Amino acid sequence: MKVLYGIAVALLVLAAAAVAYAVSPRAIEAVKRPDPQSFDGATVAHGERLALIGNCAECHTAEQGEAYAGGRAIPTPFGTIYATNITPDPETGIGTWSREAFRRSMYEGLDREGEHLYPAFPYHHFTKVLPEDIDALYAYLMTREPVRNEAPANELRFPFNLRPLLAGWKLLYLDNGRFAGLADADEKVNRGAYLVQGLAHCGGCHTPRNALQAEKKDEFLQGEVTENWYAPAISGDVPAAVKWSENQLADYLTGRWVEQHGVALGAMAPVAHNLSRVTDEDVVAISAYIASLMEDDTAETDAEITGAVGERPDSGDVGAVIYAGACAVCHDASPSPFAAGLPLAFSTSLRIPTPLNLIQIIENGVKPPEGQPGRYMPGFAGALTDEQLVALASYLRGRFTGRDPWADIDSVVKATATEGSAGAEISNAE
Ligand code: HEC
Ligand code: HEC
Ligand code: HEC
């Protein structure tokens, strides 16, 4: 890791020097905040749906904060980055940004003054978005209420706190080209690809990253850890127990419960909640494209899974005892539709390479979003010791998947415990 880090830094410095030598970004002149009346209603409404697909509010709103006013902490391996205020406030937001400055930020990751922005802002995906959609986003943001709020300064380790180094990152990894369309795909799948690769930046969570946090192009959507959750592979031979159908994907992606797959939890819940508020056409397109990426999945469609698939447990196993006493009531056969959990043989969280999601779910439980009906699971953080959690996770993996045991349950349990409520408030968007 030390060596990798060294190489990474050396590469960055070299590349940055090269870029700095070649070009230095200019500032774009400040403008007076455009009159909200100057944007037409249909464009603003279109921009609102695009902002949902792009999850802009998810990153740009602090907990308990005003929408788009910034301040949310985004943890990275190099320190914490705070999302900025993108309301049209002239001093603390983007009120003085022209359409040109906004476009440039989305395509080149530069702020109005020409400073490089960190790729925690997924501009490396937004480069695919067509200019008319970027302009609709601009219209939507510029017609929000301006909110005065200064985002905290980033807390990044040296040398990552040096923005000019990002020129090097961009030279290596930023491909500033619009979506060009897929060969051999119909209109629906093409629309889906446009959204998934661009605005919806699904790869921001689901694609493995290298030491410099750049997504590995040849492992597109193959599964990665993001903010204490593992976003499973959703292309190729995926870990889901049952092959996803296009319709199941559309239901799941809009926060509905899917019989053989459960419901979106953790970092996926807000994504699904947002997609439940866009047009059906866009959701259907995204689902069609994702289904096409899963074509070669070897799982069966509509597979019947009943009870255990792994080895039968020893009746003295601590994990087996906990499962029977604390979990089976909801996960084997449940009387209440709102308490019913997925039979765990269907759960992708048991089939991925890490116990992270399982531990998060057991510790924090599952809550429906505030004020809405939904499925509920109590959190067991205070009720189970670390040893019991490890025994339970190991038992569930063995009994319900028949896959190789997880090697790192211990450390995952310790890490999630010290991070405290990092993954708390797990809701589902149903
Ligand atoms: C995954 C989190 C994330 C998402 C999603 C996201 N952003 Fe950001 N954005 C950031 C972060 C972090 C920064 C600040 C980067 C920095 O300080 O270098 C930022 C910066 C920006 C900036 C530059 C603002 C400035 O003052 O420099 C703009 C404009 C912006 N985002 C617009 C958007 C829009 C529009 C969307 C939705 C289409 C969006 N962002 C989605 C994290 C995100
Ligand atoms: C902010 C991070 C994030 C983003 C962005 C994101 N996902 Fe996810 N996704 C996750 C996580 C975490 C899970 C695991 C959730 C769980 O276990 O319930 C997940 C689960 C899924 C699953 C279920 C996989 C399975 O077999 O259970 C699908 C399908 C999916 N995402 C599709 C998408 C698509 C399509 C997009 C883009 C429109 C997307 N995701 C964007 C984090 C994300
Ligand atoms: C009161 C009922 C209830 C109890 C008790 C309960 N769960 Fe759940 N569980 C749920 C519900 C509801 C969900 C959310 C729906 C879903 O996705 O299955 C859920 C989700 C899950 C998931 C994610 C399934 C997925 O979608 O991939 C796992 C894993 C899980 N529970 C494990 C456990 C374990 C382990 C225990 C015992 C320590 C337990 N649950 C106890 C109701 C319950």
Automatic annotation (TrEMBL):
UniProt entry keywords in alphabetical sequence: Cell membrane, Heme, Iron, Membrane, Metal-binding, Oxidoreductase, Repeat, Signal
EC category name: oxidoreductase
Main location: membrane
GO molecular-function term, one example from the UniProt record: oxidoreductase activity
Residues of the signal peptide: 1-22
Subcellular localization, as worded in the UniProt entry: Cell membrane
Entry annotated with the keyword Metal-binding: yes
Enzyme Commission identifier(s): 1.17.2.1
Domain Cytochrome c: 42-145, 187-294, 314-400
Pfam families attached to this UniProt entry: Cytochrom_C, Cytochrome_CBB3
Protein's UniProt name: Nicotinate dehydrogenase subunit B
Naturally occurring in which organism (per UniProt): Sinorhizobium kostiense
